[in-house]
Write the structure tokens for this entry.
Amino acid sequence: MEVYRDKIDRLISESSGEIVLNGSHDHAAIIVERMFSRARESVKILTRKFDPRIYCDAETVEAAQQMLGDNSRSIKILIEEIEATNPKGNPYFGELSQFGNLSIRVVPEVLREPISVNFTVMDDCGYRFEKDQSGSGATAIVAFGDVGLTERLSTLFENVWEQSKEYEFA
């Protein structure tokens, strides 16, 4: 996995727009962890379910904690199926909910079907994008430096964000 991690770091550094395939949950976890580690401003995640295989391994949680420890950086998460995620019982959310620059919102049911994708955007320079295939793996594409698609995904995220309800941890 270290080879894949190095490849993602190279993609981020070069920001050439080169597209790479993400073919497993392990790869997805590495991508998200590197996004948290390397983001200058923000990481935005839109996901049907907050899959612990991707978001809750030790390296990813540690990178998120380090990112959120800097108040000039933020993580925004949109979750479609909050019931399946159970944030209150999830150690990831328990540890990270103390940070004021972590925001979670629940996507309204009326928007869930039309979206049918999961994606993560780092700053305005990179993304991980997958068509939601409900449980068939974590096959996605990843690119850094593709400003056009990154901006479109970020705009979609912000539009859905504005229509979504804040999740209360209390």
Observations:
- Helices lie at 2-14, 25-38, 52-55, 58-68, 82-85, 91-96, 109-115, 147-162.
